[in-house]
Amino acid sequence: MPSSREVTDATAPAAASGAAVPPGGAPPRDRRAVRREQFLDAADSAIRKDGAGVTMADVAAAAGVTKPVLYRYVSDKGDLVQALAIRYAGRLEPLLEEGTRSSDDPRAMIERTIDAYLTFIESEPAIYEFLVHRAPSDSPGVAEYLDRFTAQLADRIAAIVAAELTRAGKQTDGSEAFAHGMVGMVQSAGEWWLSKRSGPQSMTREQLVGHLVRVLWTGLAGLPDQSRPQGA
Questions:
Q1: Which among 148, 160, 60 is positioned nearest to 113, based on CA atoms?
Q2: pLDDT at 6 over 60
Q3: Phi, psi of 54 (to 5 degrees)
Q4: How many CB atoms are closer than 10 A to CB 95?
Q5: How far apart are the C-alpha atoms of 116 and 187, rounded to whole Å?
Q6: Rounded to whole angstroms, how far apart are CA atoms 79 and 77?
Q7: 92 in helix, strand or coil?
Q8: How far is CA 232 from CA 107, 135, 141, 165, 221, in A?
Q9: What is the crossing angle of helices 106-123 and 77-99, to 10°?
Q10: What does the pLDDT look like over 185-207, one tens digit per residue?
Q11: How many CB atoms neighbour CB 57 within 10 A?
């Protein structure tokens, strides 16, 4: 028979989040999924409060439970980290999809996409730190997941860039390389910018977007016409 402490621990996440405890008639799998999401919410709160280096003990404390109760719903730290990484990437993906929607203005598409990414990391610096630096080391599966996420984003950009270059009468064979280079460049510049934001020479997000767009757009504008032989 569970102790009164365990009973209290088991219901704490729902009480803390204001969510109703699933009724006794709900399927056990559904109740488990709801409870697991509540623990992910607690981990999310802990990361925002204490930074990317939170421990399982910190997560349990944020949820108001003991670690043994937490481990009933997440198998280990890697399981928790991977679930959070997927959740965070899921928040970023629709923002980037909105930015990469094709339009008659490819420069505006590049600008929207860069601004969407930088807006996310500016508003969620602890989550960005966790997603890019902490999570891959704590869960090997996260690194593979993020690589796929980045590759899919670059492929989507490459398709849009190729379509716009074709419309402009430019050669498209470098579209994929350009798209992957763009993703890497923006990520690296964004990380540098986050580390410098509090310094005396810091720049605004709008300024950084402007700098990056100018460099990338100049590169696109310099591509040869379709009628020009490759390498000429």
A1: 160
A2: no
A3: -65, 150
A4: 16
A5: 12
A6: 5
A7: helix
A8: 26, 45, 44, 18, 16
A9: 150
A10: 999 999 999 988 777 768 899 99
A11: 12
